[in-house]
Design a protein that fits this description.
The structure holds two protein chains of two kinds. Chain A is of the alpha+beta class. Chain A has 13 helices and 23 strands. Chain A folds into three domains: about 100 residues, Beta-Lactamase; about 180 residues, GAF domain (Beta-Lactamase), CATH 3.30.450; about 240 residues, PPM-type phosphatase domain (Phosphatase 2c, domain 1, 4-Layer Sandwich). Chain A has a six-stranded antiparallel beta sheet. Chain A has a five-stranded antiparallel beta sheet with strand order 2-1-5-4-3, with helices on both faces. In chain A, strand 6 and strand 7 form a beta hairpin. By secondary structure, chain B is α/β, with parallel strands linked by helices. Chain B has a single domain, classed as STAS domain (Transcription Regulator spoIIAA). In chain B, about 45% of the residues lie in helices and about 30% in strands. Chain B has five helices and four strands, in the order ββαβαβααα. In chain B, strand 2, helix 1 and strand 3 form a beta-alpha-beta unit. In chain B, helix 1 runs parallel beside helix 2. The longest helix of chain B has 16 residues. Chains A and B meet through loops of A and helix 2 of B.
Chain lengths: ~550, ~120
């Protein structure tokens, strides 16, 4: 007893007394593998360890091996698991071959490292998600990419379901490693708990777990195996629901952790934003196309042998519509004498871009509705004026009406201006005349005036209607100079005898060259040309040049 | 060429009911709203019933500029005021005559209203 206590005292003397209660587990083992000292903290980890007992069987295998290696000369620090916790063991060698192992727990560091790695991976995935989704403004493509990425990073299989018709939804589905299938699916969203709400988008619903056994047959991909877990996550869009994401995992994979669910929501937010942006873009394109169809200048043809040709260039080259317009309404009225009159209209709505284009549309529609009155230009303009009078703004339109009729070999025009630039006529001699058609601009003043001028075009002669985008075009060799009416007269003089299309093209081309790269207003020209030669057929039955 | 479409509006209050704005530069699409803004502020801040718009230094007025002048006229009309377009360049007169807004924008004020304003 005395001996024993001496031994214990001896070891106490040998080692620091503070050791016993040191916060780090410490175990001292001699070269033979017998435990010499084990402190309180170490006893918690190795409850079976006792002084004098063997290290093997009481300490974890990795530590025992490290000790053997150490005795053999390899003096590295080692790390390993003890239960759920992980430790680094630092050896301190003694003179007598005894090794004191200090154990430092690194469970938190290891977990933090692991979390950091996961987080980096997820950030990289989200980055990939964003960049891949945002490169496409095609809604279908967005859904495909979302399904593919979800199946690659979040689950074994993924469904992306977009809001659709009543019983018919566009879906994209993908099994990990497989191809994306895009289809329209007639399913009842009520079959899947939470899907109807997620598709509605309101009220906002959280991700929802579904009992795998309750999943409808269509939700399970072929040869998928047993489903372990299913989660339905709404895809939030820009104020509108973009759809729902359904993730499926097989039984062998563990269920979604809390972290993974958060990650799935982050993924859903990005996918939803991209999909709704794509859909809004697609809708806008479709709306714009629809509007454009009515706002774009029409293709012009010959009417009764009379040539009509137009050119149009909007102020903002990125837009296809603007404030200038022209129309030709063939055979608008039949005059008392039985002649058929077409009505050509060219106008300029004050302003640029889409705003002007909308008013342009209104003007063109109103004029079309007033076609039966085309025999009375003044009355037509008065009615148009009444339709456009607006107490809020002073937006106006200037317009030229030209009633065109073929009379024998000639073309007779009745021209009326609503505050517009005077029409020009180029004779076969090259002489250019201004048509004295005057009148009030339309849409501002309660009363308007308008006088109609009559012009007769001999074969090959042209009447040109144009907007101030031509005469006020800024540019020229030095820049900053206005094209002006004189230049227009000169250009037109050089067009004597040309067909309508050539006149319109030439005037448009010269003005465009004048502008160069500079900014400009809308430009519109409309040429009306009396047919050359063909009148001979009508008169004498002889062919051209006979 | 310096910055295009420059428009300067120099405002002077002549007396309790009269203001004068010297407009110089181009009254066009990009600049017209500035003139309208100056007039709107003026009418909001002062009981002006006569606005003399000095156009002597207007280098160009396009159809949008004409729309601006019509809007200024309408603003003054709404408060029972009178617009005078002074020192009009020939090009501006041509635009007013072509669009038949010459009388509307420049006609001499009815004697009665003139009298009221002068008294």
């Amino acid at each position: 007893m005395v001996k024993t206590s001496r031994v214990v005292r001896q070891s106490d003397v040998q080692q620091d007394v503070g050791w016993r209660s040191a916060p780090y587990p410490v175990v001292s083992v001699d070269a033979a593998g017998a435990v010499r000292v084990v402190n309180e903290a170490a006893l918690v980890l190795f409850p079976g360890a006792a002084v004098g007992g063997s290290m093997a069987g009481t300490c974890p295998g990795w530590l025992v091996e490290a000790h053997e290696r150490h005795t053999g000369g390899t003096r590295d620090r080692v790390s390993g698991l003890i239960g759920e916790r992980s430790f680094e063991a630092h050896p301190v060698g003694g003179d007598d071959g005894t090794v004191t192992w200090w154990l430092v727990e690194d469970t938190d560091t290891r977990l933090a490292r692991e979390a950091l790695r996961l987080e980096r991976e997820r950030t990289a995935v989200l980055g990939e998600v964003s960049s891949r989704l945002l490169t496409s403004l095609n809604p279908e493509r967005c859904m495909q990419v979302a399904a593919e990425l979800a199946a690659g990073h979040l689950a074994d299989a993924a469904w992306v379901i977009a809001p659709g018709g009543r019983r018919d939804f566009p879906v994209a589905r993908c099994v990990r490693g497989g191809d994306v299938v895009h289809e329209r699916l007639a399913v009842d969203p009520d079959d899947v708990a939470g899907l109807a709400e997620a598709l509605q988008g309101f009220p906002p619903v959280p991700s929802r777990w579904i009992e795998p056994s309750s999943a409808p047959g269509w939700l399970v991909p072929e040869e998928f195996g047993e489903i372990g877990s299913i989660v339905v996550t709404p895809l939030p869009g820009h104020g509108v629901p973009a759809g729902a994401l359904i993730l499926l995992r097989r039984t062998e994979q563990r269920a979604f952790s809390e972290d993974e669910e958060v990650f799935a929501r982050l993924f859903a937010a990005r996918a939803g934003a991209a999909m709704s942006a794509a859909r809004m873009f697609a809708q806008q394109v479709s709306i714009t196309e629809t509007l454009m169809r009515d706002l774009l200048p029409p293709k012009l043809h010959q009417v009764d042998g009379i040539e009509f040709a137009g050119r149009y260039r909007p102020a903002l080259d990125t837009e296809r519509v603007g404030g200038d317009f022209y129309d030709v309404h063939p055979a608008a009225v039949t005059t008392g004498a039985g002649a058929v009159e077409s009505l050509a209209v060219l106008g300029d709505v004050c302003g640029k871009g889409l705003e002007a284009a909308v008013l342009t549309g209104k003007v063109r529609t109103t004029l079309q509705a007033l076609l039966p009155m085309a025999s009375d230009h003044r009355r037509m303009l008065e009615l148009l004026n009444n339709a456009l009078l607006d107490s809020h703004d002073t937006r106006f339109v200037t317009v030229v009406l030209a009633s065109v009729a073929r009379v024998g070999s000639e073309v007779r025009l009745r021209l009326t201006s609503g505050g517009h630039l005077p029409p020009l006529v180029v004779r076969t001699t090259g002489e250019v005349q201004e048509v004295p058609a005057h009148g009030t601009l339309i849409g501002v003043l309660p009363e308007i005036e308008a006088t109609t001028a009559e012009v007769v075009l001999a074969p090959g002669e042209t009447c040109l209607l144009y907007t101030d985008g031509i005469t006020e075009a800024m540019g020229g060799p030095l820049g900053g100079e206005m094209f002006g009416e004189e230049r227009l007269h000169a250009v037109l003089a050089s067009c004597a005898g040309m067909p309508a299309d050539a006149v319109a093209e030439h005037v448009h081309m010269v003005a465009s060259q004048w502008i160069g790269g500079g900014s400009h207003d809308d430009i519109a020209v409309l040429a009306i040309t009396a047919p050359r030669g063909r009148h001979l057929t009508a008169v004498g039955g002889h062919g051209r040049g006979a | 060429m310096s910055s295009p479409h420059q428009l300067t509006c120099t405002l002077a209050i002549v007396d309790a009911h009269t203001a004068r704005i010297v407009v110089s530069g181009e009254i066009v699409f990009d600049s017209g709203d500035r003139l309208l803004g100056v007039v709107a502020d003026l009418l909001a801040d002062h009981p002006v019933r006569r606005l003399r718009l000095d156009c002597g230094e207007v280098t160009f007025c396009d159809s949008y500029g004409l729309g601006t002048l019509l809007a200024v006229h309408r603003r003054l009309d709404a408060v029972g005021g009178v617009l005078h377009l002074e020192n009009r360049p020939a090009a501006l007169d041509r635009l007013l005559r072509r669009t038949n807004t010459y009388n509307h924008l420049t006609r001499s004020v009815e004697p009665e209203r003139e009298h009221q304003l002068d008294s």
